[in-house]
Amino acid sequence: MEIISLLLGLTIFFNIALGISIIFLERKDATSTWAWLMVLLFIPIIGFFLYLIFGKPISKRRIFTWDTKSRLGVKTAVQSQLRALERDSFSFKHEEIAEYEDLVYLHLRNDDAIFTQDNTVDIFTDGKEKFDALIQDMERATDHIHLLYYILRSDQLGDRIADVLIKKANEGIEVRVLYDDMGSRTLKPRYIKRLRRAGAQVEAFFPPKIPKINFKINYRNHRKLAIIDGKVGYTGGFNIGDEYLGTVKKFGYWRDTHLRICGDAVTNMQTRFILDWNQASRHHIFYDERYYNHSHQGDVGIQIVSSGPDSEWEQIKNGYIKMIMSAKEYIYIQTPYFIPDDSLRDAIRIATLSGVKVRIMIPNKPDHPFVYWATLSYIGDLLNAGAEIYIYQNGFLHAKTIVVDGKIASVGTANIDVRSFRLNFEVNAFLYDKGVTERLVEAFNNDIEHSTQMTKKLYDQRSLGIRFKESISRLLSPVL
């Protein structure tokens, strides 16, 4: 009995101490704080260890470091654009984009996201087309290939990518592959060894210091970047795995959105890759070795915006809110997970109540059940406000896309959920161009033909079992 009393006393002590830490020292938002307190209350011992693994905030020290020369160069370019915007002397190639100069300013000031206007953009919504194009570009590489993916699998697609990388490495091309340790946890060691034997450099982001014990497991590099010769860049939702080709029965056809970019925006994508690579590897890349003079072929305006738990501001989420609040006609959103925080949910609700047509498309099946049920709970709020909700039926929808008024858009890796905004390292392309946004609108409208509309009547007919799952998932969503 004395041992049991001692253990009980220690458990209560640790729970109280951790609760005090969460409330007074870490200053989490109220929703997250209450969620963790409930975890500690209902599963006290297990909850303590869950918090150490999933809830402990990441250090705000500088995770990504710059060399002085490169940092000064970026800051100089940013300050130059900021001054031009403040003096109303910034020259936009397209007059209709000038009305969004406050969005450009937001990303410049808070994320050093340099605005470029000489880009061309290809849009991929099919995995086979995207990877065929990527492989063709890698085959043409003459200097280097840089890949960063959250998920890298040693399956048929993974092997196909590896074959090209090994071939190019044997030709003397510098090959660097960076993957997230958590997202790529099924990656086989022999896959990595095969690449390294050919001369490719391969690194994991936030690997465990002690095998099988990783206290940074909750902070994932969810970015997807591919840069070839500093001239061609890819970003979007596709990872490297057979499911992204639509060959896995569980998901069926995989509907995603990915961009192929040429122009000065690729330099900013390259900067993001180098920062991430230098964090993970001892073999650093010098920034000035990886920049090239681009041929100015296009006129698409782009900002490459990053966010992560090391940042003071939630840059991508703030960009979403700014876009939504600027809408006059319509907002089209595609996301596999819809778990907005109060600020984003209020922005969408206000836009809807203001007469802006809001259309949100989500998948009809979960790849993460808790997140899926939480998503269903949140769409009910917006149905009541008048938003149109569509459930994609032709496989799995994984696109992370927002389009506003056919003039601006965002495509990238960030979902509309708390994890993407606060816990994951993400990257999005914010696009300022009518032609690109019209193509994204066309893709959205094509997807509507493969979707069913969730009406308020259908939503209200949900069974008690589904409502219970939604309530529990919504309660736990801040800590998922």
Map the helices and strands.
Blueprint: H1 2-25, H2 30-42, H3 44-55, H4 68-86, H5 101-111, E1 116-126, H6 127-139, E2 144-149, H7 156-170, E3 174-180, H8 189-197, E4 201-205, E5 225-228, E6 232-236, E7 254-262, H9 265-280, E8 300-307, H10 315-326, E9 330-334, E10 338-339, H11 342-353, E11 357-363, H12 369-385, E12 388-392, E13 396-397, E14 401-404, E15 408-412, E16 416-417, H13 418-423, E17 426-432, H14 434-448, E18 451-454, H15 456-460, H16 464-476
Parallel strand pairs: 2-3, 3-4, 7-13, 9-11, 10-16, 11-12
Antiparallel strand pairs: 1-7, 1-8, 2-5, 5-6, 6-7, 8-17, 9-14, 12-18, 14-15, 15-17
Helix pairs in contact: 1-2, 2-3, 4-5, 5-10, 10-11, 12-16
Membrane topology: Multi-pass membrane protein
Organism: Oceanobacillus picturae
Catalytic activity: 2 a 1,2-diacyl-sn-glycero-3-phospho-(1'-sn-glycerol) = a cardiolipin + glycerol
Question: Can you walk me through this structure?
Answer:
It is a single chain. The chain has 480 residues and is of the alpha/beta class. It has 3 domains: 1-55; 68-98 and 120-302, Endonuclease, Chain A (2-Layer Sandwich); 315-479, Endonuclease Chain A (Endonuclease, Chain A). The chain is built from 16 helices and 18 strands. The chain has helices at residues 2-25, 30-42, 44-55, 68-86, 101-111, 127-139, 156-170, 189-197, 265-280, 315-326, 342-353, 369-385, 418-423, 434-448, 456-460, 464-476, and strands at residues 116-126, 144-149, 174-180, 201-205, 225-228, 232-236, 254-262, 300-307, 330-334, 338-339, 357-363, 388-392, 396-397, 401-404, 408-412, 416-417, 426-432, 451-454. It has a 16-stranded mixed β-sheet that branches. A two-stranded parallel sheet has the order 10-16. Helix 7 (156-170) links the parallel strand 2 and strand 3. It is found in: Cell membrane. Catalyzes the reversible phosphatidyl group transfer from one phosphatidylglycerol molecule to another to form cardiolipin (CL) (diphosphatidylglycerol) and glycerol. It is a multi-pass membrane protein. It comes from Oceanobacillus picturae.
